[in-house]
Amino acid sequence: MASGPRSTARPGAGPGRGRARARKPVKRPPTPARKPPETVAPTTTTAWRFPRPPSGLTTRAIALAVVFLILTISYATSLRIYFHQSRQIATARAEITTRQQRIAELQGELARWNDAQYVKTQARDRLGWVIPGETGFRVIGPDGKPLGGGAEIGSGTKPLETSTDAWW
Q: pLDDT tens, 80-115?
C-alpha cells in the first residue's frame, strides 16, 4: 500500500471510514382496499362518539374568543380606572378654580379695607359712628329697635344670674 493521502472518490469517504453499507428496502404491509360505507342501523353494541362541532365553530375559534374575552375584561378594567381618575381630575380642577376665585374676592376685600375712606364708611353704616362735630340720629321703630343700617353693640356675654336663696 502506498502511504499518503487516500483518494476520495465518493463523498463521505475519508480516513477512518469503513465501507458504506447497502440499504435494505423497507417492507410495508399492503393497504387494504376501502369498502363503501354500509347503511346499517346503529345497534346498541356501537361505541358512543361525541358529535363533531359544526364547521363554523372550531377549537381555534373558541380559543380566540376566550383570548378576546380576557383582553376585553382587562381593558375594561383599565378604562374604568382611567375614566374614574379623569372625573377626579376634573373635579379637582373645578375646585381649584372656585378656590382661586374666592381668593381673588378676599384679596379685593382686603384691598378695600386698606382704604381709609372705606373704613370710615363702614364705621358709619355698621356701627353708627359720627365724626366729631356731626349730630347723629337714630330712628327707633314701634318695637323699640333701631331702624335702618346700624347694628347694636352689646356686651359679649350675659352675667350669670345668682339665685336669691343661696346658702351664703
A: 999 999 999 999 999 999 999 999 999 999 999 999
The amino acid at residue 106 is L
pLDDT of residue 159: 58
What is the spatial distance between Cα 53 and Cα 148, in angstroms, rounded to a whole number? 92
- CA-to-CA separations, 77 to 70, 73, 88, in angstroms, rounded: 11, 6, 17
Q: Identify residue 128 by its one-letter amino acid code.
A: G
DSSP, residue by residue, the chain: ---SPPP--STT--TT--PPPPPPPPP-PPPPPPPPPP-----TTSPP-PPPPPTTS-HHHHHHHHHHHHHHHHHHHHHHHHHHHHHHHHHHHHHHHHHHHHHHHHHHHHHHHTSHHHHHHHIIIII----TT------B-TTSSB-SS-PPP--SSPPPP--TT---
Supply the pTM of this predicted model.
0.40
16-33 pLDDT, tens digit each:
666 666 777 777 777 766
Phi, psi at 37, each rounded to 5°: -65, 140
